[in-house]
Amino acid sequence: MPDADLRARIVSGAADAFRDGDFHTVGPDDVARAADVTVAEVHRVFPSWELLVVAVVDRWTKDGRDALRGVAEQEGAVAYLRARLDRGHRHPAVVRVRVALLSATSTPGHPASGWFRQQYTMLFEDVTLALVRDVVAGRESRGAAPRHAAEQLVALFEGLQLQAMLRDDADLLAGWDRAVARMRAGWAAAAVAA
User: What is the pLDDT of residue 113?
Assistant: First the structure.
């Protein structure tokens, strides 16, 4: 099997293993079994575990970003992040891996730190750009300064995902809708005051 095909097969197997198991307990044996390859092939194609994890998260990130890009363009930043919350709610393993990695990659010297920080920055920039479009199109109030509004929305997005993982009674999408309604009221008040 050519290395490119083997790599894709291993990444797919790792994604399945992370979806089916706990990220912290999944290892090369689980990935090899899910990909129907040998452990030696996993180690040859991905000499470090971090490279494999980055490849899986990169695939999930690209798939999600591509699938929801139209939502941001047609319905705005709030709808885009809500759709991402809904997607994460339907695929909780993706959220668990992402939250685990955000913590790990905040450690100075972590081998994948730069890549994960870049991905996080890209999310923030996507939301900021969508908010600029929203203000221009009249979907959001002129009081919604795009960078500040992006800070609020991304913080809410991250916080609600964490709560949904830790609280059995958390209602992710209803919580999002309530908080966004309050934020929008604040943005409108800021526009009136200006």
Answer: 80
Rounded mean pLDDT for each run of 10 residues along the chain, 194 residues in total? 86 91 88 96 92 88 86 94 91 81 76 82 93 94 90 94 88 95 91 75
| Residue whose C-alpha is closest to residue 6's, from 52, 48, 53, 41 | 41
| DSSP notation for 49-91 | HHHHHHHHHHHHHHHHHHHHHHHHHHH-HHHHHHHHHHHHHH-
pLDDT value of position 93? 82
Q: Give the C-alpha separation, 112 to 135, whole Å.
A: 35
| Of the options 1.10.357, 1.10.1660, 3.40.109, 3.40.1000, the CATH number for the domain spanning 49-193 | 1.10.357
What is the CATH number assigned to the segment(s) 1-47? 1.10.10
d(CA 134, CA 130): 6
Q: What is the CA radius of gyration of the chain?
A: 19
